[in-house]
User: Fold these one by one.
Assistant:
Number 1:
Amino acid sequence: MKILKKPYYGIYFGDKFYKKLKYFKKKISIKIILVDSLTKKYCLHYFLYKTYLLKKKKIIKISSGEKKKNIETCKIIWKKLIKMNADRNSLFLNLGGGVITDMGAFACSVFKRGINFINIPTTLLSMIDASIGGKTGINFFSLKNEIGLFNFPKKIIIDNNFLKTLSFNEMKSGLSEIIKYGLISDINLWNFLKKSIFFKKKIKYDNNIIYQSIKIKNNIIDKDPIEKGLRKILNFGHTIGHAIESYFIFNLKKLISHGHSIAIGMICESWISYKMKMIKKKEFKEIYNVLSRIYSKIEIYNKDIEKIIYFIKHDKKNENKKIKFSLIKKLGYCLYNIEVDYELIKKSIQNSKIINLI
Ligand SMILES: NC(=O)c1ccc[n+]([C@@H]2O[C@H](COP(=O)([O-])OP(=O)(O)OC[C@H]3O[C@@H](n4cnc5c(N)ncnc54)[C@H](O)[C@@H]3O)[C@@H](O)[C@H]2O)c1
Ligand SMILES: [Zn+2]
């Protein structure tokens, strides 16, 4: 049981904290819990039991999935908040994965110019990444997280009991962001994960690895809360990864997890690092070998490469129409604002052995 206090924005570890949190006891006009179809099924009852909120709450349920992270779903949430007479004294609780914490935080941050919210992440990915760091947002016009703002939750509760019902695929999705932390800033974490994956040792998602991951993210955010510079390294793998995720979800209408897309993005972007002589071939191969053991190949239509490049051109890190990447300089160290040539980006997708061009 650990608490990360400021500069860690009040992150509480372990299930014993629920009762102690003053927010659950405080006289708050309405406590509203946002869930999706699966967190309603698997997480809500346990959460209500732990927090003694069984009688004093209102529930907003939305369908699950990345495709629902949009303005239409926000409209549903806002209409329900109005019907419930929610006001600035209400408390909004986001109980779910990254889609719920991103969109719920956004929806309540702009409702009546902002009501307080708490994140209770229920996926590995949202525990170690999405619920932390104050980025809120929704997809718009087929672009990932195009509309949003920085706004930090009042509290974050990390309870890994929620992981008991999470699918293997979703656990793998979270692992991808933990691997990213190793590659951008912690060689020991990278070596630990590499050995576990090569020797097929089970990785235990206990509070230690979750705590370690959050600490890495927070150390970065603490130095650069609103992504003026250093925080961009957290986007390693995401320039190409987000483009692949958008292409799958909005063009192919196929499901792909966020972490899977980012793993593919990390392979392509490490290849770019190698071609730009930032890392050695041996290091690129090491990254490829680890990631390709866990994440399966994807298929992309050759004719669609331009569609992927379109998404890359809209990446939030770009400046003055120049495509800027966060690229690793060595294992455990990452640079940001690196301009990459359009042709090299294209080749990284065409030459990637993890992408089958059909
Ligand atoms: N704000 C940030 O800094 C940040 C960082 C990383 C990712 N993200 C965003 O997070 C999103 C991805 O998050 P995610 O992977 O958690 O996706 P998600 O919220 O869609 O959850 C994945 C699936 O797991 C289900 N689920 C959630 N908890 C469960 C549980 N305990 N048991 C069984 N099923 C459960 C959900 O219903 C969903 O079907 C993306 O939209 C991404 O852009 C944001
Ligand atoms: Zn991510």
Note: The longest helix spans residues 168-185.
Number 2:
Amino acid sequence: MPPPVKDRFCSFCGTAYAEPLAYPRTCPNATCKVTVWANPIPVSVVLVPVRSEQGTGLLVVRRGIEPRKGMLALVGGFLEEHETWQVGGAREVAEEVGVTVDATKLTPLWFTSTEPRPNRVLLFSVAPTLERASLAAFTPSTESQERGVIHGPQGLEDVFAFPLHIQAARKWFESQGLTGPHRFTPV
Ligand SMILES: [Zn+2]
């Protein structure tokens, strides 16, 4: 069986689109003629600083699912239809690592498109700093194998899943004057 292809048929009237398939696609049915687009999708990613006797680092999750299963990532995900980037980002932090952040207190850090395909727009923001001792207990899940804090900007390529998360983390470390090799602490 050939791999499934998205949007082969008009979702309004069921008419097949003409080959070759490209976006935007306009329905050939003269009484329908609806056009669909494949717009880039926003992803809200929240940097959560966590302070302990070891200093302040960033909350990360060890991915339990592909892509880059087993590597570390900042916490975030796709927005739902009714969500602002703030509300969606805070929800992802709660779902993935069981940490409560105040959606009204997220501040924008950086936004960027993915490469080479710019089919996602990553919206990086920073949450207010949390105390390590205030974090609720973490329960691993299929999606999130481990919760931790990463200290230090150097060598993140060895442990982080996504280059743009490394860039965002480094922007934050630089803004805090934090240098040195990375260290991971489970929390
Ligand atoms: Zn149609």
Note: The first strand starts at residue 25 and ends at 26.
